[in-house]
Design brief:
This protein is mainly alpha-helical and about 190 residues long. It folds into three domains: about 25-70; about 75-115; about 120-189. It has helices at about 15-20, 25-40, 45-55, 60-70, 75-90, 95-105, 110-115, 120-135, 145-160, 165-175.
């Protein structure tokens, strides 16, 4: 697993550099914190607001700075959500349900989440599920059919795929390998 780079100001405590600076205007501090955090990776408005709160930036100052950053396009939760969905679906194979859950934890508005995950259609999601199963199928050879079914369907469930789709995709993959799946139904899942 890749380690996340720790940027100054990412921790709850102020960095040594911030402590060494003479006290500044809260607005200047807020802008500097936001710019530093946005340099590493895109962030949602809520993530930045939480970071400012942890650094004792007054709420009214934080709101003013965050609004200005939105006005000039440095904060764009809709673009963040779209990029997140694209990246995590293609990179990790996550389904719409898992993507929506992740975006909620990042503080993205529900309507923006619906819009972003809505760009993935059911056919695209099922194609990704088939690719995931194909990659994992070889590792389950030698196991009995029911164990293979549980492992493969469980992997899809952890990535947020609906139970019916997971079972359908796994059954099809097992059938293509010559496994008899006629007696399987959703109760076996």
């Amino acid at each position: 697993m890749a380690r996340r780079t720790e940027w100054p100001g990412d921790s709850a405590d102020s960095s040594r550099a911030e402590q060494a600076l003479p006290p500044q205007d809260p607005g200047e501090r807020a802008r500097a914190i936001c710019l530093r955090l946005l340099t590493g990776t895109p962030r949602t408005r809520k993530q930045l607001a939480d970071a400012l709160h942890k650094r004792d930036i007054p709420a009214e100052v934080a709101e003013e700075v965050l609004s200005r950053f939105e006005d000039v396009g440095l904060i764009d939760d809709a673009a963040f959500a779209g990029a997140w969905v694209e990246s995590r679906h293609h990179g990790r194979g996550l389904a719409r349900r898992a993507l929506a859950r992740e975006l909620r934890t990042k503080g993205v508005d529900a309507t923006l989440i619906d819009e972003a995950v809505g760009r993935l259609d059911a056919d695209q999601e099922e194609a990704t599920a088939r690719e995931l199963v194909e990659r994992k199928l070889r590792a389950t050879r030698g196991l009995d059919r029911d164990r293979r079914l549980r492992r493969l369907a469980g992997m899809l469930a952890r990535k947020g795929y609906p139970e019916g789709m997971a079972l359908r995709v796994v059954k099809r993959a097992l059938e293509e390998e010559g496994e008899d799946t006629e007696d399987l139904d959703e109760a076996a899942f």
